[in-house]
Automatic annotation (TrEMBL):
Cited SUPFAM superfamilies: His-Me finger endonucleases
Gene Ontology MF terms in the entry: endonuclease activity
This protein's UniProt keywords: Endonuclease, Hydrolase, Nuclease
Keyword Ribosomal protein: no
Name of protein: Putative recombination endonuclease VII
Gene3D superfamilies: His-Me finger endonucleases (3.40.1800.10)
Taxonomic classification: unclassified sequences, metagenomes, organismal metagenomes
InterPro entries in the cross-refs: Endonuclease_7, Endonuclease_7_sf, His-Me_finger_sf
Amino acid sequence: MTKEERKQYSHTYYQVNKGKILHRTSLYYKANKQNWADRYQNNKETLKKKAKEYWPLRTYGLSFLDIDTLLQEQNHRCAICGCLLKEKKRCIDHNHITGKIRGILCGRCNTGLWSLEDLEYRNLAEKYLARTNEKE
């Protein structure tokens, strides 16, 4: 059986037996709850690091090396404001329609860019600012 055939078989098997598999997994977890909690506590940092590396791959198809290349192209700076990007605060900017990656931004610029792209939100924000500025 080739890798692709095995993958297809596993997928089909899971779909057919989903209820049984989830029930069995639930029973196993309940019986070994403390073991899982201890395992998580002992490996918390490693698990966080792996999840952080896996998330862009799953979400955008970007590997750790792809992100590193983007960061090097941008000199580890935000593509909009140019501030130095901290590891925890960087955001992968992408076109929500095409899914194409545009660059890496700081959290502030990523939020600001979202508000500019969303015309309905931008109009509401402008009305709010106009209304509150009139009161002053």
